């Protein structure tokens, strides 16, 4: 990546985070700042869905309109091998399970190994139907299921080893599979299988994965959770550590966090997976994007 490059970083934030980021991008574009023209787009978890959506055939304004007009949908489910329903979505005790794993881990690498092992314990044969349904669900959200020529990076974590991976169009897998892997929380949505490997959420690598933009002159980060992290600060998972690394490498970095009406949606303990949060999150993001476009224009368009 050239030192003159621009990177757009899209953090995870569940269904609400996806909607808020689409709203922000649509608002920025309407106000005259097209951040989709970035040389590099990094999408993590629900941000990976946004990255695939905005570089497909559907324009952000259309994606926004679809969110605002869509009827809320129930959690996705599939029929299991015994005829029962296999739910796909956040496990009811997801925060409790992952919180205990984080508390027991000695560092980030240990946390990833433990998180993968725990997720794999839930990956029973009955989840094969859930995997197929999850792939279909992700595919339905994308207007194009092939990688764009524009450079996109989608992080995930190998559940078997705990090692981070970063998918791009040279990885030899479909875009849909990369997004499905990065959005698998491992609990509720089981580890996503690609070939003989299984993957869990890209946010277990680092929260926003903005460090993958190293070498870019300008980096714009959208973080639904406002850079907050559930991990100990000395692990360096949090956004502030990533921003510090980027700036040490002479990147200029700007961040956008939810404000106003979106604050409550992304508060700790809120259910960002609730489909009813999507319209208000998208509206708040749209108004925020329009309001921020002018002050971000010089930063984004600056030639070095």
Automatic annotation (TrEMBL):
Domain PNPLA: 9-214
Alphabetical UniProt keywords: Lipid metabolism
InterPro entries membership: Acyl_Trfase/lysoPLipase, PNPLA_dom
PROSITE patterns linked: PNPLA (PS51635)
Gene3D superfamilies xref list: Cytosolic phospholipase A2 catalytic domain (3.40.1090.10)
Segments traversing the membrane: none
Locus of motif GXSXG: 43-47
Superkingdom of source: Bacteria
Protein name (Swiss-Prot/TrEMBL): Patatin
Species the sequence originates in: Dyella flagellata
